[in-house]
Amino acid sequence: MRLWGLLLELMLLLSGCGQRSASTNHQQRHSNGQRYVPTLFFHGWGSSYHAETQMANAVVKAGGTHTIIRAMVARNGAVTLQGHFKAGDYRPIVEVNFAANRSSDYPTVGRWAKNVVVALQQVYGIKAFNMVGHSMGNMAITYYLLANAQNKRLPQLKRQVDIAGHFNGILGMDDEPNRMKLNAAGRPNKLQPAYRQLMGLRQVYPRNQVRVLNIYGDKGDGTHSDGAVSNASSQSLRYLVASRAKSYREVKITGKQAQHSKLHENQQVDRLLIDFLWPNA
Q1: At what angle do helices 2-33 and 106-124 cross, to 10 degrees?
Q2: What are the C-alpha distances in Å from 174 to residues 170, 178, 182, 195?
Q3: At 97, which helix (H) or strand (E)?
Q4: Which CATH architecture has domain 33-277?
Q5: Which of 32, 33, 63, 268 is disulfide-compatible with 124, CB 3.0–4.6 A?
Q6: Where is the signal peptide (predicted)?
């Protein structure tokens, strides 16, 4: 009986050690999670994470990170993370993929962006992150911020890169070449419905928190556009966020590679992203 008692005490002791170890590992994961600052890439209308591959691979080649995972967003907004953050690689890339990639319901797309942020928060315990958008991916970012910029329970946005953003219209739909004018503050002379909604950013965008890089293309054909979006539409972001952003910078890309869908394949854009988001690479 005494031997059985000793064996039972040993089993309980080992069991207790195992429970403490599991708890410690859980706390350790979340403690390290606070060090991770992932960069989320959002693709454009009708596209997929493949449009983000060129930029992501350029970052890896430059040594900015060695980690690329994917956030697959189902049509109902549910998020599945593919891959894992690597230990010690604290600036990973998250390629976001929308299954419903032809949705123009911007508030819904913004909610899907939030679902990705929340998934990363729940799995890794992140406290901060960056966002990169191309074309309609910028609407996912801005509508996410419109609804969540003041939510302190969520991880906080640190850096935002907007590429070929159509904040106040798209050529051939609700804009025409050289029609839109911006005043000295960057406000368009005519506001499209989506832009009117985004005007709320002037009240809720985080003060002195986010550094913004706004990249747009000019093909040099006289349209002052990238072929799909006028420069004025892209530059209209300034009026929405510049007065509250920690910093705001615009960069115009010119030439044939400044065409709308070629901007995410442009080496000059790659270098701008790397210098802005991975300055030590």
Answers
A1: 140
A2: 6, 13, 16, 12
A3: strand 93-98
A4: 3-Layer(aba) Sandwich (3.40)
A5: 33
A6: 1-22
User: For residues 211 and 250, is the Cβ–Cβ distance under 8 A?
Assistant: no
What pLDDT score was predicted for residue 31? 58
Residues in the chain: 281
pLDDT digits (tens, 9 = 90+) for 113-167: 999 999 999 999 999 999 999 999 999 999 999 999 999 999 999 999 999 999 9
pLDDT digits (tens, 9 = 90+) for 171-194: 999 999 999 999 999 999 999 999
Among 251, 276, 198, 262, CA closest to 226: 262
Contact 191, 232 (CB under 8 A): no
Q: How far, in Å, CA of 196 to CA of 201, rounded?
A: 10
The CA distance from 37 to 94, in Å, is: 10
Which tokens go with 189? 């002379």
Backbone angles phi, psi at 178, to 5 degrees: 65, 15
State the DSSP string of 254-275: ESGGGSGGGGGG-HHHHHHHHH
Three-class SS state of 194: helix
What tokens does 248 get? 């705001």
Q: The pTM is what?
A: 0.89
